[in-house]
Design brief:
homodimer, alpha/beta, Aspartate Aminotransferase, domain 1, Aspartate Aminotransferase, domain 2, seven-stranded mixed beta sheet, four-stranded antiparallel beta sheet, 15 strands, globular
Chain lengths: 394, 394
């Protein structure tokens, strides 16, 4: 008799984006013709850069030709792309073998699938506020979850604590939703802690391309000792606008062995069993991101979002609101003024100035009283929203 | 202390394709300039059809334009494609709601991932010979596996047996590797058996497009009662040459509820947690397969492979070798002559006439003494191989 995975019954319904959509819809129905300024969006708005478009068209043409057609790709990634990404890490001073790089459909796919590698009776530490899928993917696996809260006091960059020891530790830096970034000494403390307790860090580097401060690490493998206690999951979604095009990569060093099993070998076996590789077309498009011209073009797009960030940060500075992020991340995380709650501030901005953001409480209980602005919106929306915020709150 | 998923230690190394590659390589090294005739390949050789190529180029152009750019796609599939596929099922007399169709990266990805829905202490029935990933994906999950052997006597289409009752039942029809196809009455017996025992059928329909006999079912949902005991997993890999382009779909009827949990709802939750949807570009390309012109073009490609099948079947008929498949499937499964073993026959064909096939023993113990020819090769290779087989074995 079939029995479902009953862990699904433990999932809580997330009403965050549903509630935002409902409240926004209701506002527009009551105020026909209202012009909303959207700073809630977690999706990019600029199209793919020319270098990627060119490569995608070329790859499609190859799939049209009997001579150049590509059938099944190697399950762990095309050698040309694994080599390109390994080489890209040299910029961070990180030396990787191409077979430590696995091409993926994106970070969100890997953050859950990677749990296949671990014993399900283990525990997982989630630093909150957090991307809600960290928690949900671990609930589906039936893992025990420890929630480590962070706050304004630690700049939303908490250090490890002996009260929160877990087998797996999710770290997202630059962080979604807070935009906060761990510096080298702080990340070293996490690496040392993981090694001391035999924990494994799952490092979500999806926003690394937004780092401009040269002292901040892009990869956990810039930290000494990380090769023996960390896996890194990255994506081209925000780096190069691949949210709807899909491509990412995962780094699993060969140094990770536990109970006589090697995680890199296990992931090879997982991918060869459970996938038939990633689309040749997308891998060709992804490789174009890492050419000299590709890098120049994606940096131009990132600069555009950074300019949005500056416009929002200037407004918040003007009205004296505390915030983190924005400088090395596409998100700005602010303290709601006048001790307002997250949803209270959401309603206030929507009703008073038609600005839509994201209530921090949706990313974990400790996000209550905080609010996320995204810098992925249009310039026009961003400028109008910033001016209206200053008028409303100064 | 991190503990790996120890089920990986129970995986057996598969030497099938590795051994084929090694033996072939050794032969070429000993016989420089030898011209091999490859009937072992499980990959398509014809390029994507024009209709798909056109759609892929158009989609890439949309990703280059600020006005038409597509970011994050709905996690369960773009509505346009879910609707198109649901409509496609009407041809089989199957009525589906679009939200019973989930767009995927391909069948191999889903055949393992779908196990996320079920309690891991359950059992799985695999009808052998079988696609090796069925077994391996279930070993990784730690499920108990029952191997149901088939044989020449039952035409490699065994019926259910009270000695083999399991929670999950994998059925692949048309079958890889045997090419055998269940007819309606035989499939009805499996559906009735599943309902009687509270089992769920995972129906792998990856080769349905090769069915030409109108009495044979393309979908398990053509069978009365299947909506309450089956999930269907399909792919465009063989249907439309998407092996290296990647796209598939999974049908989960809304009728599947167990212990108060609905599998369709659970899969929505799984996809929204563990993916960010499938590439817009690939979904546009996939939709083109289902247009009138797309269907005409892919059928032309399938006819080409069918012609290869006829050439091989004619040769086997001439030398009096027993086989199944070929008529409604891209594979031909034959009994090795003179009581040769699978690998013995492999060596014989390679050494005597430079024909490369696939030893049946690689698909499960009951495949010993059998051999698979694929019809996906070039016409030239197929014709030469067929002529050489007749000369050698008649």
């Amino acid at each position: 008799m079939i029995k479902p995975n009953m862990n699904y019954a433990d999932l809580k319904d997330s009403y965050l984006f549903y509630n935002i959509a409902q409240k926004t819809k209701a506002y527009i129905e009551e105020h026909p013709g209202a012009n909303l300024h959207r700073l809630g969006i977690g999706d990019v708005s600029l199209p793919l850069c020319d270098e990627v478009i060119k490569a995608l068209h070329e790859a499609v043409d190859e799939q049209a030709s009997a001579e150049n057609f590509h059938g099944y790709m190697p399950e762990c990634g095309a050698p040309f792309l694994r080599e390109t990404i390994a080489k890209h890490y040299e910029k961070f001073g990180v030396s990787l073998s191409p077979d430590e790089v696995f091409v993926s459909s994106g970070a969100s796919d890997e953050l859950g699938d990677i749990l296949d590698l671990f014993d399900r009776d283990g525990s997982t530490l989630v630093i909150e506020p957090a991307y809600p899928a960290y928690v949900d993917a671990n609930i589906i696996e039936g893992r025990r979850i420890l929630h480590l809260p962070s706050s304004e006091k630690d700049g939303f960059l908490p250090g490890p604590s002996a009260d929160f020891v877990a087998d797996l530790i999710y770290i997202c830096s630059p962080n979604n939703p807070t935009g906060a970034v761990y510096d080298r000494p702080a990340l070293k403390r996490w690496v040392d802690f993981a090694k001391e307790h035999g924990s494994l860090i799952i490092f979500d580097a999806a926003y690394e391309a937004f780092i401009e401060d040269e002292s901040l690490p892009h990869s956990i493998f810039e930290i000494e000792g990380a090769r023996s206690c960390a896996i890194e999951i990255c994506s081209l979604s925000k780096t190069a606008g691949f949210t709807g095009t899909r491509l990412g990569y995962t780094v699993i060093p060969k140094d990770l062995s536990y109970c006589g099993m090697n995680l890199n070998d296990m992931w090879v076996r997982n991918r060869t069993t459970k996938t038939n590789g990633i689309s040749y077309i997308l891998q060709k498009g992804g490789a174009a991101v890492f050419t000299e011209e590709g890098q120049r073009q994606i940096k131009k797009n990132i600069s555009f979002y950074k300019e949005n960030a500056k416009i929002i940060m200037k407004a918040l500075d003007e009205v004296g609101i505390w915030y983190t992020g924005g400088k090395n991340a596409p998100y700005i995380w602010l303290k709601c003024p006048d001790n307002m709650g997250s949803w209270e501030f959401f309603d206030y901005l929507l009703n008073e100035i038609q600005v839509v953001g994201t209530p921090g409480e949706g990313f974990g209980a400790c996000g209550e009283g905080f609010f996320r602005f995204s810098t992925f919106g249009s310039r026009e929306d961003t400028e109008k929203a910033a001016a209206l915020i200053v008028d409303l709150l100064k």
